[in-house]
Amino acid sequence: TETETTAVLPPPHPGAPSGARPATLEARSVSAWFGTHQVLAQVCLTMPAHRVTALIGPSGCGKSTFLRVLNRMHELTASAAMAGAVLLDGEDIYDRGRRITHARRQIGMVFQKPNPFPSMSIHDNVLAGLKMNGIRTSRGERDMLVEECLTKAGLWKEVRDRLRQPGGALSGGQQQRLCIARSLAVRPRVLLMDEPCSALDPTSTRRIEQTIGELSSDVTIVIVTHNMQQAARVSDNCAFFLAEQGTPGGIVEHGPTEAMFERPQDPRTADYVNGRF
Ligand code: ADP
Ligand code: MG
């Protein structure tokens, strides 16, 4: 059973502007079920440090489930089960000797619909994950962290004079950047993003894409997107998921994004990236 733990913020890593040390995430033969319904079968994928990996594929092929498996959220759903392993720089995040918070602190998540705490201040929203993850910080450290994370999320200049205003007063795109800032506050080594721009207008989308580009030097990014142009713009590597009639989801093809788009090896990938289904 999970109990409250206390920990300190990881020390800034001199090589990375964010202070975090990006990690390589590796899924080894990951399968997942909801009850008896298998939604992923033996997915193998390496998501290298310092790179953006895009997960593409039609609705219902298991992309969100895969992301949830990657940070131990899948197991929070009743009847959910998984098999296989997820390695963070070689360390199994499902290791029975480790608490769930050990994985969650290192692997952050941003969702499709921006979900800041609407009545909580912008300042407190950024810090909200620290307590939840049992991380203690000093007051001075917290104020610096708020500025650091809002800067990294590309929001600092817009909100520096209104940090005490509620998160819910921001526009949708700003709220999503606030959520990115919140997930960065624990100095994660990997950031998982599940269609982070689907609910946003094109201008906000471009701002987030720009932020992703800037963040990729200090956090490993895995992004699910329905937008092929976005995958082409933001990712280094790409994995194409598919769940064919009556079969669980799996990866048809993966590799460097440019090669996947220019010279897909599988006809199903070619059809998908060219918008034929
Ligand atoms: P994607 O993100 O690629 O659209 P999902 O991972 O959301 O795919 O869903 C994969 C499959 O798992 C779908 O068939 C979906 O209906 C099923 N599924 C997703 N969430 C649940 C849940 N909480 N309970 C039962 N089935 C689910
Ligand atoms: Mg999804």
Automatic annotation (TrEMBL):
Residues in domain ABC transporter?
A: 25-273
What PROSITE patterns does the entry give? ABC_TRANSPORTER_1, ABC_TRANSPORTER_2
InterPro entries, from UniProt? AAA+_ATPase, ABC_transporter-like_ATP-bd, ABC_transporter-like_CS, P-loop_NTPase, PstB-like
- Compositionally biased tracts (Polar residues): 1-6
Q: Tell me, what is one Gene Ontology molecular-function annotation carried by this entry? A: ATP hydrolysis activity
Q: One cellular component GO annotation, for this chain's record?
A: membrane
Q: Which UniProt keywords apply?
A: ATP-binding, Nucleotide-binding, Translocase, Transport
Q: Which SMART domains match?
A: AAA (SM00382)
Q: Which residues lie within the region annotated Disordered?
A: 1-22
* UniProt superkingdom: Bacteria
Q: Name one GO biological process term.
A: phosphate ion transmembrane transport
What protein is this chain from?
Phosphate import ATP-binding protein PstB
Q: Which organism is it from?
A: Wenjunlia tyrosinilytica
